[in-house]
User: What shape does this take?
Amino acid sequence: MVPPVGSAAIKSGSSDAKAWLLLLPALAFLAVFFLVPLGQVVFFSVMDPGFTLKHYTSFLSDSFYWRVLWGTFQTAGIVTIFALLMSYPLAYMIVRMGGHFATVMLLIIAMSFWTSFLVRTFAWMVILGNNGPLRAILEAFGWSPAPQLLFTRFSSTLAMVHLLIPFMVLALYSVMKKIDMNFVRAARSLGATPFQAFHRVFLPLSAPGIVNGCTLVFIMCLGFYVTPVLLGSPREQMIAGLIGTQIEEFLEFGEASATSVILLLVTLAIFAIYNRFVGLDKLWG
Amino acid sequence: MTALDSRANSAARGMLAGENGTMTKAYLEIRDLVKSYDGWQKAVRGISLDIQKGEFVSFLGPSGSGKTTTLMMVAGFEKPTAGSIRLGGREIAPVPPHQRNIGMVFQNYALFPHMTAAENVGFPLRMRKRPAAEIAKRARDALAMVGLADFAGRQPRELSGGQQQRVALARALVFEPDVLLLDEPLGALDKNLREHMQVEIKRIHRELGITTIYVTHDQTEAMTMSDRIAVFSQGAVEQFAPPLDVYLRPATRFVGGFVGDSNFLDVTRGTDGGLTAAGLGALDLPAPEGDRFHGLIRPEAIGVWRGGEAGEHCIVSFTVEALVNYGDSVLLIGGGHGLSLRARIPFVQATDIHEGNTLQLAWRRRDMHLIPA
Amino acid sequence: MNLVLAFALVVALFVVGPLLIVVPMSFSTATSFEFPPPGYWLGYYRAFFADARWTQPVINSIGIGLATMLLTILLVIPASFAMVRQRFFGRSAVNLMLMMPMIVPHIVMALGYYSYFSHLKIIHSPLGVVLAHTCLSVPVSYLIIAAALKGFDRNLERAAMNLGAGPLRTFWEVTFPVLRPGFLIGGLFAFIHSFDEAVVAIFISGQAASTLPRKMFDSIRIEADPIISVVSTLLFGVVLLAVISPLIWRVVVKRPV
Ligand SMILES: Nc1ncnc2c1ncn2[C@@H]1O[C@H](COP(=O)(O)OP(=O)(O)OP(=O)(O)O)[C@@H](O)[C@H]1O
Ligand SMILES: [Mg+2]
Assistant: This one.
């Protein structure tokens, strides 16, 4: 007769070991090829060659860097707001109308979503370019000569709104499509006007989507490199672009590292706030 | 069908307990089985059951009472925290699930979505390394047995719920398991299909004579299908007995309340040693051991008293508070003398009864079953 | 309501419009970015396919993407099994670790890889890009594969064992085939992520191992090479095909005869 199997302790011990064994490849890989380079960034930000905080003090005492940081926040905020204002009605109509309209709209969103940032950035390059259609149109309407559009804050902001709308729409849509329309119907039957029903019932229920979409877009914007570098004004860099310049042009690893750590901390802080109020797993649930 | 037939014969050679008067040693012996998932709360708290070869046993009980957990331990998917399970005299705790030779039908059928019906049914034979020709033939036979000969090439998602259910049954039987376990197999089917499948499962059980454990929380299903019912409550078996015993002579108040509709009266032993019930007086019943009892009287055992010699009847006056019409019968809810009662009477006897009426109800004294409190 | 609908349509137009402009550009005869094109020809397509400075990055990107995909799912599949099926101390910390590469801005990692891989002498090599891209692809791949695993009905495994399959056979005969689509999608996302990733590649792939996004970036920034419009059109075409082909499939296959 075999003794009754498995005291709880032994059982959980062996399953722990199994779990760690299965996780070993992924964790070891990430430790060597993710944590180490990340740690290096932090390390170099305080070494030159001995321990020093001068990269941080020079960053924090120079108004240029503050302007970059503030400008980055501003741009990210503007992009987020515009993306939300444009995406919300679209996502709303997709769930309200359904059918072919929804299919076509989601198709358009998916198309844009999957098309490389570089392709889309290039498209804006053409549209806003000196020989591009937008200036031609402006001039046709009598604004002559039309202002320089490319390589301004306007161009990179516009392009980022375009680039990030699909993310916002999908974040909103995934929450909205789960909202039971009977809530809205119930509100209407209880005497609410269409606007009241939307404002008092649908909008609050879609709030998680708004929070998710805005967090996602804001964070992506903060660290955005490609588009601001290609389309934006070289004099008004965003923080990611600044890091790039510090590496490429000046080979200033200490400064680049300190700037990176600051960007990282800001990003982590936003994630932490999100996690505190919503729960991180909801962001990509 | 040959393989299945030979099995049927050997099983049919009668080993049902008590049929020939002798209690054969149990085929499946469950002893003091305990299961705790978290080492703290017990999902199963010391269950002992002796199941005879060829018997059809139902596990009946409310949700969360430990039926599935017990079944999982028999099948080998959960390890018992304590206790033993013996099959044909052999302890099966050390035997891994795939070597237990126990067939199981899962609640959601668990048909492999990437295999056809025939491949699903052939799977256990393939695992047993049977030759391809034999696999094909036996899978075909098993599908024919459940009436799905023409559906062999279908994928599970191309089958209806009832058909999937049959494929699962065929798959669980094709390798001639020693025991068949069914975990609420009909739960997802509509009422008509469920009744049809009940008959079907009983037919197959009769043909094959396979020892079967059938989990359900539908009491009618358990009553109509089983040789014996094990009534589960909170991880323990309250009673293990043939259906009529469970219904007429429930061992505990829980069983009496769970199976069928019921009235419970507080019965106590009077100073003279006889039994009395609150609101009724002396009961004039043979008194078993004990001082306090729950007196169980089924609503359908109560009738309207139209006068005459009381004799063996218990008569109470009763005011109707509510009246529920079921079409064929009428449920009277009300009471009198501090007693509340439910009585179910045939429709034709109730045409002149209305809410607020006071009438006399009666039942035969021996129809009251006493459960020690 | 009509106003909202009209606005939604305008937004949709804003989303597609710019995408469509790359198509006529690719047939343009202009030598710089100019719209509308002064004339049309196929010359830049010919130039693209004949120019190793463009075709090599395409090949590099595909190779790096495939290697990344393979490596990523090899790491992520066992990890997902542990995360979904086991309860152990430190599970939520591990979860955070697996998601971390998605949280850290890519430009930060680009800097990290730049100095780390210089040190390891694998900068400007495909190997370095694959290692970096694998880290960055882990989260998305993990999300997909773990979700597939969560949706997997464990009764299928129980049924297999009950029917006589040992643990190993159960995995190969039931678990793996049923989950294969999920694994493939997880891998596909890793591939796409690698194929599209620009920032890290810009800094560490160099000339020799240049990926397509890096080449496109340079081409836009430095050269203003019109071939970029051909590449853009081809990439857009692939996406278009991938996005609408399920739809076409549905229409063609389900059309009543
Ligand atoms: N894998 C598990 N981990 C932890 N607790 C469990 C697990 N499975 C079941 N339990 C608990 O064990 C108890 C018995 O559950 P079990 O599934 O055996 O009930 P059941 O009688 O089959 O109920 P139902 O009719 O709802 O299927 C319940 O309290 C349940 O919450
Ligand atoms: Mg159950």
The CA atoms of residues 181 and 283 of chain A lie 24 Å apart.
